[in-house]
Prior knowledge:
By secondary structure, this protein is of the alpha+beta class. The protein has one domain. It has three helices and six strands, in the order E-E-H-E-E-E-H-H-E. Helix 1 packs across helix 2 (64-73) and helix 1 packs parallel to helix 3. The longest helix is centred in the first third of the chain and has 23 residues, at 17-39.
Amino acid sequence: MAGELTPTSRWTGKPRKDYIHTMVMGMGAYLGELMIRNGGGRWAYDIRQNNACVDLDNGIRTWPHSKVFKRLTIGSEHSLAPYYHYSLTREVLDGSVARVWTDGTPPTVA
């Protein structure tokens, strides 16, 4: 087993790769739908990134599945709350970072 249960029933360790994939697909889809329903927009496919993305009505393109993957595999510095907030408002919360391309492509958050 990749991790173990402690006496407080909290799992420690890292999930198996197949679990990560399942969680990324489900949580990324949910996060993307939240963005679309609360900020307006649509799902798209970014050929350059070879990944599903969300094009929001405010002009931001975002990759919710990639962000969920980073959160699960890298850690809390890839928090989903500031990512979601910036995607809808363009306001950067304290302690978060937004990447904006300057080559004429839509603003992005990753």
